[in-house]
Amino acid sequence: MDAKALRKLLEEVRGGTLTPDDAVSRLRHFSFEDLGFAKIDHHRKLRTGMPEVIFSRGKTPQQVAGIFRKLAAKGGNVLATRADEEHFRAVKRVLRKAEYRELGQAIILRQDDTVYGKGKIAVISAGTSDIPVAEEAVVTAEIMGNDVSHLYDVGVAGIHRLLAHQTILTEARVLIVCAGMEGALPSVVGGLVGVPVIAVPTSVGYGAAFQGLAALLGMLNSCASNVSVVNIDNGFGAGYVASLINRL
Amino acid sequence: MDAKALRKLLEEVRGGTLTPDDAVSRLRHFSFEDLGFAKIDHHRKLRTGMPEVIFSRGKTPQQVAGIFRKLAAKGGNVLATRADEEHFRAVKRVLRKAEYRELGQAIILRQDDTVYGKGKIAVISAGTSDIPVAEEAVVTAEIMGNDVSHLYDVGVAGIHRLLAHQTILTEARVLIVCAGMEGALPSVVGGLVGVPVIAVPTSVGYGAAFQGLAALLGMLNSCASNVSVVNIDNGFGAGYVASLINRL
Amino acid sequence: MDAKALRKLLEEVRGGTLTPDDAVSRLRHFSFEDLGFAKIDHHRKLRTGMPEVIFSRGKTPQQVAGIFRKLAAKGGNVLATRADEEHFRAVKRVLRKAEYRELGQAIILRQDDTVYGKGKIAVISAGTSDIPVAEEAVVTAEIMGNDVSHLYDVGVAGIHRLLAHQTILTEARVLIVCAGMEGALPSVVGGLVGVPVIAVPTSVGYGAAFQGLAALLGMLNSCASNVSVVNIDNGFGAGYVASLINRL
Amino acid sequence: MDAKALRKLLEEVRGGTLTPDDAVSRLRHFSFEDLGFAKIDHHRKLRTGMPEVIFSRGKTPQQVAGIFRKLAAKGGNVLATRADEEHFRAVKRVLRKAEYRELGQAIILRQDDTVYGKGKIAVISAGTSDIPVAEEAVVTAEIMGNDVSHLYDVGVAGIHRLLAHQTILTEARVLIVCAGMEGALPSVVGGLVGVPVIAVPTSVGYGAAFQGLAALLGMLNSCASNVSVVNIDNGFGAGYVASLINRL
Amino acid sequence: MDAKALRKLLEEVRGGTLTPDDAVSRLRHFSFEDLGFAKIDHHRKLRTGMPEVIFSRGKTPQQVAGIFRKLAAKGGNVLATRADEEHFRAVKRVLRKAEYRELGQAIILRQDDTVYGKGKIAVISAGTSDIPVAEEAVVTAEIMGNDVSHLYDVGVAGIHRLLAHQTILTEARVLIVCAGMEGALPSVVGGLVGVPVIAVPTSVGYGAAFQGLAALLGMLNSCASNVSVVNIDNGFGAGYVASLINRL
Amino acid sequence: MDAKALRKLLEEVRGGTLTPDDAVSRLRHFSFEDLGFAKIDHHRKLRTGMPEVIFSRGKTPQQVAGIFRKLAAKGGNVLATRADEEHFRAVKRVLRKAEYRELGQAIILRQDDTVYGKGKIAVISAGTSDIPVAEEAVVTAEIMGNDVSHLYDVGVAGIHRLLAHQTILTEARVLIVCAGMEGALPSVVGGLVGVPVIAVPTSVGYGAAFQGLAALLGMLNSCASNVSVVNIDNGFGAGYVASLINRL
Amino acid sequence: MDAKALRKLLEEVRGGTLTPDDAVSRLRHFSFEDLGFAKIDHHRKLRTGMPEVIFSRGKTPQQVAGIFRKLAAKGGNVLATRADEEHFRAVKRVLRKAEYRELGQAIILRQDDTVYGKGKIAVISAGTSDIPVAEEAVVTAEIMGNDVSHLYDVGVAGIHRLLAHQTILTEARVLIVCAGMEGALPSVVGGLVGVPVIAVPTSVGYGAAFQGLAALLGMLNSCASNVSVVNIDNGFGAGYVASLINRL
Amino acid sequence: MDAKALRKLLEEVRGGTLTPDDAVSRLRHFSFEDLGFAKIDHHRKLRTGMPEVIFSRGKTPQQVAGIFRKLAAKGGNVLATRADEEHFRAVKRVLRKAEYRELGQAIILRQDDTVYGKGKIAVISAGTSDIPVAEEAVVTAEIMGNDVSHLYDVGVAGIHRLLAHQTILTEARVLIVCAGMEGALPSVVGGLVGVPVIAVPTSVGYGAAFQGLAALLGMLNSCASNVSVVNIDNGFGAGYVASLINRL
User: Fold this and answer.
1) How far is C167 from chain A (nearest CA, A)?
2) Phi/psi at A117 (nearest 5 deg)?
3) CB burial class (10 A; 0-12, 13-18, 19+) of residue H165?
4) Inter-chain contact E166–H32, Cβ cutoff 8 Å?
5) Model pLDDT, residue D225
6) Burial class (CB in 10 A: 0-12, 13-18, 19+), D214
7) Rounded to an integer, what distance in angstroms lies between the CA atom of residue C243 and that of residue D9?
8) d(C-alpha B176, C-alpha B199), whole Å
9) Looking at CA atoms only, how far is residue A232 from chain G in angstroms?
10) pLDDT at B23
11) ipTM of this predicted complex?
12) Interchain contact E89–H (C-beta under 8 A)
């Protein structure tokens, strides 16, 4: 039941063809969703420009292409994460404008080029193996309308390389820091800036890295107070949170 | 806003002092709760006779007594779990009819003696150390209006003792099985009956028992298909679930 | 030794061809199983209509087909879980009436259409990736003679979609709720109904989902008291327990 | 060596009393800190109004009081977290204006009442036992110059209570959500708002809650994309991150 | 129902006062235990001389004393493990002959001095902190009628000390090896002897010892094939298993 | 240096061609092994008939065949565990008498048919999936000269099937019990016999079985005192330990 | 900016073409790295002869070959770890002098044959399966200019074999000890020598070895005080640390 | 049996009072230790100046004092770690020269002031709470005859403070780095120096720090290749290893 249906019911009440008692009875059976449209208004502004998103892993190329086309029809940007080249070829066949961002394993469709972010988002990664996760964050932040800079391969064991590029850090309004192994980079970066840092542990490493657990625990225990953490390898989530912050 | 308020609004619509448009606007700001009373009706029958419950651990005797009195005023049964004697003394002072079930560390107040359960609930425990958890289940099931039998200290290493009391098992409509250490009892009991078994891992044991983790994992992997599991030491939860099943 | 054999022995005692002493000696060597037939009677009613079940994973198509045919010969329903299309083709060749339920990866044979369940079982799942587990529960409950409804893709991050379909929840006598990732859905559903909820953690997710561990722990710690839990991805177990409850 | 010292060295070079070679040698021994003063300027604006913070647990009342007085002398706000009443009495003796926020176990000193936050920060907690962590977040956000609202005891098993107070959620620019046990609340809240949500797992619960691990894993796997997570019981960290976001 | 009762029933059948049909009916209701006496005969020899055992931790001195006296009345040896001096004083008051083995925290009562073990049991421990566990094994093996030798403080980091006492190792028919920390001793000992080694991980250590987990895992992965393992700190279990082996 | 060499040295001393001082010097450089022959004597009897063993997994067929031939040349029995058919074909080519025990994935060569075991070893397994591990134990015990009986598929959820075959249990001098999932069978079996039980957790199961961890923890916490445990899936180790016990 | 650039700037100051104020401004924008050359001097001696290193796993043969050639151009030794034969073939094509160390899965290029190590490094491994990790350590230490001896397959269950080769242990200035399963070897070796021991847990084993976790925990809890530990399977790290120590 | 005894035996052989055969027999029963004295010589130089060490926790003051006096009698330095003031008072009573190092919770007795270390050992700690562990390392290194410098409270979130004190880092021959929480400091320090770094995880932190596990995993996964790790809170072990290295 949408607003129109509700109004119709109220008209009937006004017209006397429905008693208030009967109206109460019928309203009792309305689902919350039906009456809940007002709520969506509250966030309309914030939600504008949000991309439609598909998690491709575990889906066939055909499934991804099908969903992609349907979402593209809504008119906004579309993002398919964890997509391989086969996924892309299937999407490309149905949507010629779709692009593949290989490093970030993402398929994107740009239909809205508005810049929603007020400042810059910087994406930092500790090692070259962390780049796929970092790039997923970059693509996500870009498709959500942000100006994104990045700085890769600046691990904490070579701290001077990071310090040499401090400008990228200090110019950002929000930072995303990706690191595997000991996951120490967010703490160091967090100490160099005065803005929020979103930390992304990656599953990079072997042995006692335990598929990202070591990095995850490290980041949760960061001695820098401006750090919050998302799931292991969740570049998308970091890009999404950073974009929301950058819109404020 | 309850039904009365809603009716008033509809009367205004009928009376023409409120246009349908304005009514829609005002309805948009109603909280879901306000309109949700119908939903509660669906379960009225099921919810009748449910006790009010307090988790006492971490609360002072005064806090428990205060909450207890307030809940008692609603007229139904009241149950305070994980309560020690100090908690009880404080409750006793404000509610003379309150009783202490020492083994199950529970304070109860019986104001409703209706039998809601259709059959018998049997509570089985593997060792004497599991009894406090088993008794919490017993007290919970009793206060919720069930006929409860129990069978304690029938560990799987002495399987004949369990088999010697099969009648208790086969007479029950639902069973609760509490065990620490290797947590094997629910599987054995599950294989002897054709009704649902609620398994409660207990934190009894030492070393590789890891505070109930061994028993929990054992129960989740039960080779008996009629077993489902609640949290470690959660006698209350088991009693509650069993009571709901026994009302069906 | 069955009842007949036992009676024969007693006849010999009565006839004097066997002394009581010799009878005791011979009885001493009877296995428990031999004398245990009475026990099975207790559950005859409950056990009627139970399907024969095969866990297919790790078995060759030929093995599954062989067991399937043997179980089918008993005359009741047969269910093979975790079966792929190759398993099905092998079964189909020996039993033309066998059907494949692709979504739930189950092979079924219906030879008994009796409705054993007294009410409706509702199966709810949080995301589309949880559907295989949910469908295993659906197939299990159906083959055990229940009226099953389902509601898929109602994750807690879009709570209104769930609330919009409350009727399915409130009409059920037992509910099965499947969720991966944070496993929060059973708590929310548990709070909306007054009947037992069987929670099934799924291995859906990545990183800190740890193959279903996060969901499992979440469900074991549910703040809704009517929730009990089965093993990760154990749709069959949930369907089985729910069916037992629904027969009561 | 600050700018003045550097200039002095350059003057010497210009004056010819120091050869370029010798200057290079001396510069080689400058620490990075000495030359790094520019960097601090970048964040001067962001850092203004940041409180000085003491982690009291494990420190004697005397130690806390000593550090507190020293930090207070800098003129800004001071916050001592995880402080008990003994800590407070010691601080009170040396700083009469210090206040104790008992629920949040925090000692505060307000010397700067500027409002730095642009919007409202809402702090939500699932159960009454989560309140100490929630209050630590509240105190932190307040002392950092924010308008803070809160909503306590709105667990996911009673979703309507949360929905009934949606205004608090939708009015906030940033949200902090604290929950123990299954830690599901951030996902639900995340789905209801379009702004960043900082999730704080608490160590509330028992058994398979594993001192907050269940809640932590649940939050890291949140199906709501706007959720990021801080350490277990880290109300301070959440308040700090939320404050930084609210200043942007 | 014991043999006598069974014979009585059979006599009635012979006498014609009970029909075979009625006899079958009555036999159906006999518990398994009642008919199971034959089974116990099989192990009579093995079970002779087994002590009665009480796990004292978590029991009050009065409870331990009560159980102890009751078990002592059976005429065999009695062992109370994990007992402190208070437990002992309570037992001593009711049984003057009871002795306290302080190192092994065990109360014993010797009423049967038969030697049941065919050879020697050697108990080896890695460090002085492992002695309480080792002594629990010693006391258990002694009270079960074995000749027990021991060798303490022969950690693997001082391998020559162990080698210097090889006679103790090579003279034993079964060995018990207790070790905390890295738990390496059973592997080394296992390699030096050709008889079964029972390994007992102890909770000795700190940090990454994780209360005996490191030692437990080490022992389970022993490269010596003659090693089997019991629970952390389970000196009693090791002594019991070794005694059973030594009787063979 | 063996006994002969040592004697030669001593003869030289006696003959005066070597001074005692020089003899001491030379003895100082002898390795321990050289002088350790006495030690080996101690176990000569026990070690007789021990098979040579190869762990095949991770080795190429050629490597296994090579080692196998070399070990066969020593004249005793040879056992290659975790071997697939390719391994076997390679071995067969170089040793025609080698046999493949498919169920237990073992290649054996019998060159010594002596019976070393004094009694019977019984191998019990809980489910059909545990059979490969159980068979590895059977093969190991057989090749080490034991009379081995087995009883498969007697899970604890069907306890009567186990009880129906108690003779196998009670006739054994040592038992090996293999179980995955909840690993409860050793406790039940342990309670039915008075001899040592070697428990083998298997990696059978899914979800919260965690590749055998659940079964392992269950067995370590067994409430039956005659149970000791070997590594997950370590059928060989269990067979080896049981054989050593059976020789005593 | 290197020393030359800095001198040029200072010359300008001396020459008066740059005011001290402008020089300060320009220096402020120098990156730390630029001014950091002094620091490198401190370690020049230590760093001489350090190989360039590539972690090959996860990189394509082309990528490895490309990086390898670039690093080779610097003139020092080059080491590519975790490289397979395909990696090698690609490198060989661009650098004919490159060699493949198959056992250690390493590609090396020797362009500097200086011996930097002052003593001998001994690499010890417990079983044949640990050899790949041990060889990675050997190759690393050799390419870094050390005299390396090794001793393989000396597990703790055959302690005499280790003792028979004590000379290798006692002649070393630093030792690397690799072991999987229970990881006990470093403790035994540590007790036999008076120099630093670098322990490398390997992922060798199955079941409760948990991919090297058991060995790792064992080594961290070593009762030998001269043992420190690197990551699971990290032969390279051990070789690197040992080489640094051997240069001191 | 020492060299003298051996010579005596050989003299008897030479004198003809002992036949070579009888000598072989007697030598067979010598323990390895007896003949192993040569081995100890190898390390005599390295072992000189090693302190005698007592781990005090879990020992009574009287026990510690007793052992301390006995060890002091050997003439070298003595160190009691994890000692509280009561331990010290007991030691002081029997050894007036004993000193208490409160920060490091260590009792020391200096009887040998020789400097054995060739260079400086630097001990670095991340936060003030890590100081007790750092001081344990300092005391250990000092009592073993090293020149020790330290640098405390230089966490990675304030990287400039660390960089400002680089001299301490670059002057050290070996470094010990202690850190709790995310344990990132060793990686940063490791990247700044070219010498071995011993990392000590501390149990400092809360929540997901899991008593030092997060720091431990972080350090094991360090991206700096010159880092090796000791057990959580094991300041003594780090000091010991560093001292051994510094003697080389």
Assistant:
1) 9
2) -80, 140
3) middle
4) yes
5) 94
6) buried
7) 87
8) 6
9) 19
10) 81
11) 0.82
12) no
Contact by Cβ (8 Å): E104, E138: yes
What order do you get walking across the sheet with G106-109 strand by strand? G52-55, G78-81, G106-109, G99-101
G49-63 mean pLDDT: 90
User: Is the Cβ pair C166, A32 closer than 8 Å?
Assistant: yes
| Record: contact H216-E206, CB cut-off 8 A | no
Chain H residue with CA closest to F11: the answer is H20
Residue G157: per-residue pLDDT: 87
- What does the alpha-carbon distance between residue A203 and residue D136 come to, in Å, rounded to a whole number? 32
Q: Across chain B, what does the average pLDDT equal?
A: 88
- Strand E174-179: give its sheet, edge to edge: E147-151, E120-125, E174-179, E197-201, E227-229, F227-229, F197-201, F174-179, F120-125, F147-151
With CA atoms as reference, report the closest residue to E27 among E56, E51, E5, E54: E5
**Partner-chain residue, chosen from A195, A221, A241, that has the shortest CB–CB distance to D244:** A195
Residues, chain D = 248
Q: Which residues pair with F227 in a beta bridge?
A: F197
Find the Cα–Cα–Cα–Cα dihedral C35, C37, C40, C41, rounded to 10°.
-130
Which tens digits make up the pLDDT trace of G9-21? Answer: 888 888 888 888 7
Residue C123 and residue C141: Cα distance in Å, rounded? 10
Sole residue written with tokens 């914030």: A46
CB contact under 8 A, F237 and E228: yes
Query: Is the Cβ of F156 closer than 8 Å to some Cβ of chain B?
Result: yes
CA angle, C94 then C96 then C100, to 5°: 100
Q: Cβ-count burial of H113 within 10 angstroms (0-12 exposed, 13-18 middle, 19+ buried)?
A: exposed
CB atoms within 10 A of CB F134: 30
> What are the residue ranges of helices labelled H in F193-234?
213-220
Strand pairing category for C99-101 and C106-109: antiparallel
Nearest Cα to Cα of residue E55 among B203, F192, B205: B205
The residue of chain E nearest to residue B165, with distances taken between CA atoms, is: E31
> Cβ of B105: how many Cβ atoms within 10 Å?
23
- Indicate yes or no: CB of B23 within 8 angstroms of CB of A10: yes
Query: What is the per-residue burial (b if ≥16 Cβ within 10 Å, else e) of A44-56?
Result: eebeebbbbbbbb
CA distance E155 to chain H (A): 15
Q: Are F197 and C66 spatial neighbours (Cβ–Cβ below 8 Å)?
A: no
- Please, which residues bridge with residue D200 across strands? D178
How are beta strands C147-151 and C120-125 bridged, if at all?
Answer: parallel
Binary contact (C248, B245; C-beta < 8 A): yes
User: What pLDDT is stored for residue D42 in this prediction?
Assistant: 37
Per-residue HEC secondary structure of chain G comes to CCHHHHHHHHHHHHHCCCCHHHHHHHHHCCCHHHHCHHHHHHHHHHHCCCCEEEECCCCCHHHHHHHHHHHHCCCCCEEEECCCHHHHHHHHHHCCCCEEECCCCEEEECCCCCCCCCCEEEEEECCHHHHHHHHHHHHHHHHCCCEEEEECCCCHHHHHHHHCCHHHHHHCCEEEEEECCCCCHHHHHHHHCCCCEEEEECCCCCHHHHHHHHHHHHHHCCCCCCEEECCCCCHHHHHHHHHHHHHC
Which residues share a beta bridge with F122?
Answer: F149, F175
Q: What angle do CA E235, E237, E241 make, to 5 degrees?
A: 120
* Tokens coding B171: 């007479």
- In this predicted structure, the answer to whether residue H44 has a pLDDT above a threshold of 70 is no
Closest CB to B184: pick one of F180, F184, F213: F184
- Which 8-state DSSP code applies to residue C51? P
What is the per-residue pLDDT across F152-207, written as a single tens digit (0 to 9) for each?
999 898 888 888 888 899 899 999 999 999 899 999 999 999 999 999 999 999 99
Q: Rounded to a whole number, what is the distance in Å from the CA of G123 to chain D's nearest CA?
A: 40
